[in-house]
Predict the 3D structure of the following.
Amino acid sequence: MRHQLIRLASLAGALTLSACASFAPQPAPDTSASGKDNFQTLTTPIVALGDTQEHEPTGWPLYDNDSAVDAYVEVAQRPPEQPLFGRRIMEWALQAHPDENFLHMGDVLDMSCRSEAQRMSKVFNAAGRAGAILPGNHDGLMFGIYGYSILDDILNRDAQKWNQACRRGASVEDKKHKTENEAFSKRDFIQMYLAGQAAVPSQPGIVLPPVKGSHRVSWRNPNPEAFLSGIEAHVLDGFAYADSFLAQRIKLPRAAGASRDVIVIGLDTNQAGALVSSWDTLMGRSPGSIGHVNLDQVRALTHWVTEAMSKGDLVVFAGHHNWRALGLPSRLLLRNLMSQVSHPLVYLSAHTHRGFWAAHRELDTRPVLELNVSSLSDWPVAYRRVSFAYDAAANRIKVRGELMPRGEQPVQSDADLLAAWEAQTCGSLDVAVEQLRAVDHELVLKQREARGNLLGWLIKRFGPDCEGCDQTLYEHAQVYQDALLDAILQVKQFVSYDTKALVLADLPSWCKGNDFEACIQSLRAEQPSDYASHVNLFRRKAKLVDLLANHLDDLTEPRAKAYMTCRAVQAAKIDFDATAETRNENRSEANRRAERFFWTEATVGMD
């Protein structure tokens, strides 16, 4: 019941904020001196991206991401193209720049399920080069908000619900992915990440933490030129797992003739333990939306800053949460750490899903130049190629953040951005862009129009427990599974030349020997008559979606990849355009233009 009240308070707070929040652009960087400076390029570009938010859509349905909530809190339930094809956007971005290191700014996952992590690991592994990932608030917390204890008390009702929501396919009889460890805690995220980095031959000596118990990891790459050059981590058990942290030292690739190195201090801004989350809720904030960096993390990484200053390197700070989304104690801690730096201050971030350039002078007269990268799950779907230059005489840093993708000219509008995506993805297909856009438009609007009613949702959600009380939830969930099945059928329709993985899939016995198309049509034709039949039909649909969606990752022909990337981007744009401007979380093009979203560089000095 306690978590029910927290969830209700968070929802009420979100509705209140969405109703009354106004937008005021953040202060712009100072450009008055940029024409007088003499910059030396220090680094070659890296790919900076964030908020991919891979989503598991086939577990037990929850009220937290039901369509009724989506009608009031946008992106609680994204268009069906996103969970099916969304990871292809990141794949496309990484493969478009095969020789450049990458930095993922966090929120790789959405609900934080093991299945989500496994799918995204395949994409990262296929990149074939060095990269780093900063933890986001969705990477180890349910929906980026709730830090349930899934380790101390597995019988806890809410922990069970998180685990059930992550049991892909939802069917009871399939035991392979129906363990008690399908939910993916912050500790799980750090352990999987460290295991992946330890498997890289050029990164020897990373000692993995044990499965249980408090454990520190302190590692330095013996190769002084390595991209991922250091790790400081601390993993904890039980409710405390959300206070775990993963900090990273990243050495950016040097440009020819560079006189000094640039070191990125990758912060973990998600030390949101039980006490922090409870306090945020009491203050009317959604836990997870506020970033937290604790003193233990700052102490663990301070030696990196001290070392960089002694060598004359530039230090850049990076974290998932944008600067203003960090709690005041965290900003005070970081400002104290930054006071050791003798050059201008730069902070890279994600989290907002909108992207901007800003200069912050709160708490200190020395500005912090912030580049906030965009999202790869919601519009504006974009990423940056980031590099750094320095004018030693003026003690001024230039940050280049090329907005990607782009055509022959830099992107200057949302229309330019969409055109760049379509030219690179949809344009390589044998199907007219307009035809695909029409299909996505129909599917997205159909999903939005099927949203439930929030009043009925609240009555059922917080009423007494009884069998059948959540039938409406299953009805809504079935509509979403139908949309996912429709999108899978359309893959066969538009890219039939590369769908053997779907055609040859080993289907469940209840498909009665039919191929996947006939099996889908049969499920779609069923009309459940009572609660038990609603649940049974939902589970069969979810099982089929899970099975076929995993086979989508086996479609490796370039045109199939382009098709799925195209559709995921188009769906995000269509969903954005269908959202009232008052409810798009300040992501309108006008607001983003006011915060310099389309800029490609900015400079910062000491005052």
